[in-house]
Design brief:
With 404 residues, this protein is α+β, with helices and mostly antiparallel strands. Helices cover 30% and strands 31% of the residues. β10 and β11 form a beta hairpin.
């Protein structure tokens, strides 16, 4: 499917890698080609109700800085990858797999199927080893964490997600090969391969941002991380320690409270609830602490309304959101761009499912610039050295793919 899709200038491939994270709709979706599209800045997005309300499939992304203007955040930082602030497109062809088979929505589904079969299933070559540079050294990262803890001590915020970037210049890769290798190393339920002209996202995300089913909204923020062990007894102990960690629970509950507050802006009074608190879920490299919050939408709440109330997601910001966005702008060295944003789809009925873009590689084929970003939740009780190690742990699958 991906080899066939590569001939298109734009495509979006979403794959749950056989996880069954509820609510579960599709095994994978592949949208290729463009019938109509919309991209732009925050002002364009705020006036895009008609575009998003039409009954059709849409695929695309929102970059982290989309609503900076709403929070009065000004930035001069450059996103070296160059994804637009937001982009959504109606595909010419949509393929998706559900439990009972492959479905094709196109003007001529049979010809699409024949072309897909004719393309074959050739395995692409592995990526060559790539040398990476750090935007911040370990000592620089730790110093900034300690500065952020002083803001917490002064009462500026309770928790902040602080990120740093790794990059390489002059890189030539095959994004499909890199994505396939990443999926072998770290399959995750909200994975994506997204091509927008010369820009690529190779995403191995374990996190759902928010999903809509009719009038029900559900968010599943991740906050809390522990490494895995190949020794079963040690792995069970690490999982239990994560479940019982007062620090990780404190981080998680602050994000839950933030998400409850965001959903309450657009949901019926009394309908917002926490369906699961501190659930421990296991992925190839890490155990994660995930909570689930749901609510029932007020009537006539549009996609734009929902995003304005909830984006950027609390797990990638902190609390209170206004202040931590200012601190992120002050202490992080590069724009996040599509990282910490979201990729996903909207159905003709208005339902949608959006991930959180983490554990991801971004690549600009024209400038040959490759990067990934990692971060962790900083609280007053955080240990700066341990937070640095958590960042490296989260990036371990990507590093393995790039360095062999």
């Amino acid at each position: 499917m991906l080899n066939w899709a590569q001939q298109f200038n734009i495509f979006c491939f979403l794959d749950n890698q056989q996880y069954q994270v509820a609510p579960h709709r599709y095994e994978c979706l592949l949208a290729v080609g463009v019938t109509t599209s919309l991209q732009g800045d925050a002002a364009t997005f705020k006036n895009a109700h008609t575009f998003f309300n039409k009954k059709r499939w849409l695929f695309g992304h929102l970059s982290f800085e989309l609503l900076h203007a709403s929070f009065k955040i000004e930035t001069a930082k450059i996103d070296a990858i160059g994804f637009p602030t937001f982009y959504f497109f109606e595909p010419q062809v949509l393929l998706y797999i559900k439990e009972n088979g492959l479905y094709i929505e196109a003007e001529d589904p049979q010809s699409v199927y024949e072309a897909l079969m004719a393309w074959g299933f050739e395995k692409v070559a592995q990526a060559s080893a790539i040398n990476l540079q750090q935007q911040l050294s370990r000592d620089e990262y730790m110093a900034r964490v300690q500065q952020l803890q002083q803001h917490i001590l002064r009462g500026d915020c309770y928790e902040i997600n602080f990120c740093t970037a790794f990059f390489s210049e002059g890189v030539v890769i095959d994004p499909i090969a890199v994505f396939q290798t990443l999926m072998q190393v770290s399959p995750n339920p909200f994975s994506a391969l997204y091509k927008l002209a010369d820009k690529y996202l190779m995403c191995a995300s374990p996190e759902r941002f928010i999903t809509r089913q009719q009038n029900d909204l559900l968010a599943q923020p991740i906050k809390g991380t522990a490494k895995r062990s190949a020794v079963i007894s040690e792995d069970v102990a690490l999982k239990q320690a994560l479940r019982n960690s007062a620090k990780e629970q404190a981080e998680n509950v602050m994000v839950v409270d933030l998400m409850r507050n965001d959903l309450s802006k657009i949901c019926r009074p009394g309908s917002v609830q926490v369906d699961e608190l501190f659930g421990v879920y296991s992925f190839p490299q890490v155990h994660q602490l995930i909570s689930t919050i749901s609510g029932t939408l007020e009537e006539d709440t549009s996609f734009v309304n929902i995003i304005e109330a909830t984006f950027p997601m609390g797990s990638m910001t902190g609390a209170p959101k206004q202040r931590v966005l200012q601190l992120i702008e002050q202490y992080e060295t590069v724009a996040r761009g599509i990282f910490s944003g979201t990729v996903g789809y909207i159905t003709p009925g208005g339902d949608f499912d959006l991930n959180v873009v983490i554990r991801s590689l971004m690549y600009n084929e024209t400038t040959k610039y490759l990067s990934y970003q990692v971060g962790s939740g900083i609280t007053f009780y955080s240990d700066a050295a341990q937070e640095w190690e958590e960042c490296l742990l989260k990036a371990s699958a990507i590093k393995k793919v790039l360095t062999g």
